[in-house]
Amino acid sequence: MTDAAWESLSNQAVAAAGLLYFLALLAHLVEWASLRKVPLASGAAARDSIDIPGGVAVATGPHSDEAEGRARRTALFGRLGFLITCIAVAVQAVSLFARGMAADPNRVPWGNMYEFTLTGTFVVAFLYVVLYRKFRLAWMAPIVLAFVLTVLMVAVIWLYAPVAPLTEALSSYWLVIHVVSAIIATGAFTLGGITSALYLVKARSLSKNGPQETGYVARLPQPEALDRVSYRLHAFGFPVWTFAVLITGPIWAHQAWSSYWNWDPKEVWAFITWVVYAAYLHARTTAGWKGRNAAILALVGVATLWFNFIGINYFSTTSQHSYAGGAKQIAPLEPAPALSRDSA
């Protein structure tokens, strides 16, 4: 295949992945809308029940055939949504592979902000699929899919850039090591931030409505479970982020700029993000922070993370990592040659 054919395949796969994410979102919205009519099991009724998204028990006693049928149809939409999500993740992986093959020479698909955004949304969706059964994340489906679909649309509409070769400074194996670790941590922190936000919503709903909760929030796991999932996601992402920010980043910077630390805005904000998440984990393990305070600190962390990802690229004029608009390359960029006194 020619480079143009690979690029065309990548664009088509991105469009197909977006459509599949949209269909998966619709399936989950139908699922959760149907759950409003499905009674929750409680007390002795929990013995005669079936499970639906999030491990919620649905009453299916001997006199609830209609409720049981509705619950099973609802579960079918949930399985359909998850299956479509898995296919969308596979199609998006094809788009990334084709994007790398479209370059001459072939390269990893992380040459500009468009490609980095594609990879970031892929990792968020991929981690969701991988951790779906381990953490019983069915309750997270509508939020994750809406997030991935929105960011993917932003990338296609505003950040798209034609395939181009990497700059000389980017042609390094450190690009793979540094960016892979940063993207994996970003995906984990994003899922953790979503869980923390849902924790605050669930806790507020319980304090306000008590057992009379209704709708989507009523089907969320209990706050303690949400808090535990959030902590595990952050505990996974933090060492990976540490490896990316404090180890591979400085090594690559020294290789490209002859300095381990340059006070570049993106370096500074990456370190701020590291400090916030370090404080989050430290507070949980030493001060016993849980619940609301921990969730708020986690949201501060994800805010600094995404400002570092998007804000620095658009608002900083001095960052050597700037690749705003998609056409510029991910740093490290080579410094401009100094002007001699005669040329000045």
UniProtKB/TrEMBL annotation:
<feature type="transmembrane region" description="Helical">
    <location>
        <begin position="12"/>
        <end position="30"/>
    </location>
</feature>
<protein>
    <submittedName>
        <fullName>C-type cytochrome biogenesis protein CcsB</fullName>
    </submittedName>
</protein>
<feature type="transmembrane region" description="Helical">
    <location>
        <begin position="113"/>
        <end position="132"/>
    </location>
</feature>
<feature type="transmembrane region" description="Helical">
    <location>
        <begin position="268"/>
        <end position="283"/>
    </location>
</feature>
<feature type="transmembrane region" description="Helical">
    <location>
        <begin position="295"/>
        <end position="315"/>
    </location>
</feature>
<feature type="transmembrane region" description="Helical">
    <location>
        <begin position="173"/>
        <end position="201"/>
    </location>
</feature>
<keyword id="KW-0812">Transmembrane</keyword>
<keyword id="KW-0201">Cytochrome c-type biogenesis</keyword>
<feature type="domain" description="Cytochrome c assembly protein">
    <location>
        <begin position="110"/>
        <end position="316"/>
    </location>
</feature>
<feature type="transmembrane region" description="Helical">
    <location>
        <begin position="233"/>
        <end position="253"/>
    </location>
</feature>
<dbReference type="InterPro" id="IPR002541">
    <property type="entry name" value="Cyt_c_assembly"/>
</dbReference>
<dbReference type="InterPro" id="IPR017562">
    <property type="entry name" value="Cyt_c_biogenesis_CcsA"/>
</dbReference>
<keyword id="KW-0472">Membrane</keyword>
<feature type="transmembrane region" description="Helical">
    <location>
        <begin position="80"/>
        <end position="101"/>
    </location>
</feature>
<dbReference type="Pfam" id="PF01578">
    <property type="entry name" value="Cytochrom_C_asm"/>
</dbReference>
<keyword id="KW-1133">Transmembrane helix</keyword>
<feature type="transmembrane region" description="Helical">
    <location>
        <begin position="139"/>
        <end position="161"/>
    </location>
</feature>
<dbReference type="InterPro" id="IPR045062">
    <property type="entry name" value="Cyt_c_biogenesis_CcsA/CcmC"/>
</dbReference>
